[in-house]
Specification:
heterodimer; A: 326 residues; alpha/beta; 4-stranded parallel β-sheet; 13 helices; 8 strands; disordered N terminus; B: 466 residues; mainly alpha; 2 domains; globular
Chain lengths: 326, 466
């Protein structure tokens, strides 16, 4: 390099200042994300409660880890399943915004040889392309498990750069502060000691758009990897479709769509039998979204799940092109 | 070579680190070798970054580069007397890969309806339109204006200077080649300071504005004129912040390496007429068309100036993409320019002139983003039907933006408009594009805003597709 002689001339001061601003802003953004972001705080709290519940379950007995997005978190009452059905269930349902890979990493961490793993991921997550949403990465760092993000495929630099808000978060937060609204729609009080999220918010349930669900190559690969992981550790695995609100007019179409989807899933892992095929037409059973059950409905879902688990009522793995059980 | 991807910066810093380390070794061994070492390293760095994009991208680039240089060498060595005639051989040869990758599907399947499936799956190598035009300009300048053929190494650096390969600016021989001939890796604090401001501004344009606005781009409505106008506005803002963002980052990286590239955008949305708009939008492409198409056709000095303008804009439309929508987009802009010329000395008040210009430019963006001809015609019909502008349509257009999404979109539009106002003030008060956006305090604020607002997943730069 050809260097100029004067020492002070050799430093691009403004460049260094901008670099310092970049690093400072990234650090502050990371601190905000990990310690102050209301959404992350809620999921961090929920994860800790779920882990505590898991630690309190008997260690000598195989356990049942059920995981998925918020549809799982709001619909599986682990305490009820333990009390009423004597099933040692851990509800590892968090938020769909984590992405399927990150949710899987959070759940696998609680899995021990001999356990049962119930994949209750929302169909949308298994039909989406590969991708690691920032929320999941942020939460893995917030709960002290950055290795979840790395195992899910993130590189350290990209994971560290994800520890910051985005325009949607900043601007909606600003709006909520201006309108003096709660900073996040759910509160920590809603998360029960067993990790079940008893949603208190009530909203008009919008009519969901019933679409065909096609397992994406990424979803296919994820399920295959889960199957192999479970086989290596002698873990029993099955898929359970979440309950979703559909209008009576859309019920037949939705059922046909879910049946096709389950056919695809059952070519990889067994599927827990659900006669309703995940479709529910009673709007009053849902709290604030077509996938969030009210506590009473969550209890019913937990009881039905407990029955299916006790009887291990599964559709067996159907090789692609094989006959479809109806 | 996506500047918004972490991988690009990792590769660049790693490459630069290796180059500087080797350079230190070479300098202690044989100082006189450093000049050639610098040039070879710069070529290698550019090729490595291009290869990281994809093997096809690199190979096609290399083929065009070799054809250009050795074609010129052959002509100048054996046919110097009639060198300009050989333009008819070399220029079509250089256009062949561009035609194959970009236009074969359109010509074979859509124009002539041959239904060759093979052409449907051809993937356009990144940057082919840009570097093909750059090399054509080089060939013309060398053969017609009888300029000397440079050393191959300098030519390779001219053609392969990595900040400008994939999306311009389309640099010209007289601007970039002398800099490449003099190129050394130098530590130039003043140029680094300058480059950092461009890079920061470019990232703000791309990540904080373009990528966020992209999330609200929804071209599905063809019957609601307000929705179409909103989509046009969002697309117009997005494509500007996206492409200008890329160009500014390229300018900044080049500046850090001690090379000056042409400012490709100069606040085009502050233009008071379409002629001025085209002097401020994608400046190097406009200059290319002026020098290599418009002037050779006779320019404004013939009776057929209107025809010449139309030819230039039709070719410009086709350059942007193989589709009837791009042809229409070019034709519309050509018509705007011809109408402006016909208006002669008649002048509107500045605010009205700006409003009319923006109305025309944003209306024309519809032809740029709507690739389906039937949908495009439906939308044009809707926009031009006064009865479609009802209160119910306005309510329906606003419906998706009630609540959080409306607040976020509103916030982003406020930020975009504030940026455009600062651009306008820069021109109005200082007559220097982006002056106030490059003030040190503003740059620091933009850096913070970029970190806070950039979405987690960035989109590829729109112009990569061209």
């Amino acid at each position: 390099m050809l260097l100029s002689t004067s020492h002070s001339d050799r430093i691009p001061r403004f460049g260094v200042t901008v670099l310092a601003v970049v690093l400072g802003a990234l650090c502050l953004a990371a601190c905000y994300t990990l310690f102050l972001n209301p959404e992350i705080s809620l999921w961090k709290h929920a994860y800790r409660l779920k882990c505590q519940w898991s630690r309190h379950l008997p260690h000598d007995q195989p356990r049942i880890v059920i995981y998925g997005g918020s549809s799982c978190g709001t619909s599986v009452n682990a305490a009820r399943m333990r009390t009423n059905h004597n099933l040692p269930v851990i509800n590892m349902g968090l938020a769909a915004g984590f992405g399927a890979d990150m949710l899987t990493q959070f759940a696998l961490n609680e899995l021990r040889p001999g356990d049962t793993l119930i994949v209750a991921l929302e169909p949308e997550l298994l039909c989406a392309d590969a991708g690691l949403p920032a929320l999941g990465i942020q939460c893995s760092f917030a709960v002290g498990h950055p290795e979840f993000a790395i195992r899910a495929g993130a590189s350290w630099p990209s994971a560290l750069l994800s520890l910051r808000p985005d325009a949607y978060h900043c601007l909606t937060l600003l709006g909520k502060m201006l309108l003096r609204q709660p900073l996040y729609r759910y509160s920590k009080d809603e998360i029960q000691s067993d990790g079940w999220h008893a949603v208190t918010a009530r909203r008009d349930i919008p009519e969901p758009i019933v679409a065909a669900f096609d397992l994406s190559p990424h979803g296919h690969d994820l399920l295959r990897r889960i199957r192999e992981y479970c086989a290596e550790r002698h873990v029993r695995v099955a898929y359970s479709l979440p309950w979703m609100y559909v209008s009576p007019q859309q019920e037949a179409k939705a059922k046909a769509g879910f049946r096709d989807f389950l056919d695809q899933v059952s070519s990889i892992i067994p599927v827990l039998n659900d006669v309703a095929l995940g479709t529910h037409t009673v709007k009053e059973d849902f709290a604030d979204t077509p996938l969030h059950l009210k506590p009473e409905a969550a209890n019913r879902r937990s009881d039905e799940l407990a029955r299916a688990l006790q009887q291990w009522d599964v559709l067996p793995v159907i090789p692609p092109g094989g006959a479809t059980p109806r | 070579m996506n500047f918004a991807e972490l991988r690009f910066w990792q590769l660049l810093l790693m490459g630069l680190g290796v180059v500087l380390l080797l350079r230190a070794v070479v300098a202690t061994w044989k100082t006189e070798w450093t000049e050639n070492f610098d040039k070879v390293s710069l070529v290698a760095l550019g090729f490595m970054l291009l290869l990281a994009v994809s093997a096809v991208t690199f190979i096609v680039f290399l083929v065009v580069l070799l054809c250009t240089y050795f074609g010129l060498l052959w002509i100048l060595r054996w046919h110097r007397q009639h060198a300009p005639r050989y333009l008819w051989l070399l220029v079509p040869l250089l256009l062949t890969p561009l035609f194959y990758y970009k236009y074969s599907d359109f010509v074979m399947n859509r124009l002539f309806r041959f239904e060759f499936d093979f052409f449907r799956h051809v993937i356009i190598p990144v940057g082919i339109s840009f570097y093909t035009f750059q090399k054509i300009a080089f060939v013309v300048d060398t053969l017609v204006f009888k300029q000397a053929l440079p050393r191959f190494l300098d030519f390779a650096n001219f053609a392969g200077f990595f900040p400008q390969i994939v999306a311009g600016p389309i640099e010209r021989r007289n601007d970039l080649l002398p800099q490449m001939e003099r190129f050394r890796f130098r530590w130039l604090p003043a140029r680094i300071n300058e480059g950092v401001t461009w890079i920061a501004l470019g990232f703000f344009f791309k990540c904080a504005l373009a990528d966020n606005l992209a999330a609200y781009f929804d071209a599905s409505s063809s019957s609601n004129p307000y929705s179409i106008w909103l989509t046009n506005c969002l697309f117009g803002l997005r494509i500007y912040f996206d492409f200008a963002g890329y160009s500014l980052i390229a300018l900044g990286i080049a500046s850090c390496l001690g090379v000056r590239l042409t400012l490709n955008f100069a606040s085009p949305y502050c233009a008071l007429n379409v002629v001025e708009f085209w002097r401020r939008w994608h400046i190097t492409l406009s200059q290319w068309f002026r020098d290599y198409v418009y002037i050779p056709l006779g320019g404004a000095k013939t009776r057929f100036w209107a025809f010449n303008i139309m030819v230039v804009f039709l070719v410009s439309g086709v350059w942007h993409g193989a589709g009837w929508n791009f042809v229409l987009w070019g034709a519309l802009h050509g018509a705007f320019l011809i109408a402006f010329r016909f208006s002669g000395a008649w002048r509107m008040p500045r605010a009205l002139a700006w409003g009319v210009t923006m109305l025309a430019v944003f209306a024309a963006w519809l032809c740029f983003y709507e690739l389906k001809t039937t949908a495009l015609l439906d939308k044009l019909r809707t926009l031009s039907t006064p009865a479609a502008y009802t209160l119910d349509a306005l309510r329906a257009a606003g419906h998706p933006y009630v609540g959080a999404h409306g607040f976020v979109l509103g916030g982003l539009l406020v930020l975009a408009v504030a940026t455009l106002i600062l651009e306008w003030l820069s021109l109005r008060i200082r007559n220097e594009p982006y002056y106030y956006l490059r003030k040190p305090l503003t740059v620091c604020a933009l850096v913070v805003l970029t970190i806070l607002l950039a979405p987690g997943n960035n989109n590829a730069f729109i112009y990569f597709a061209f």
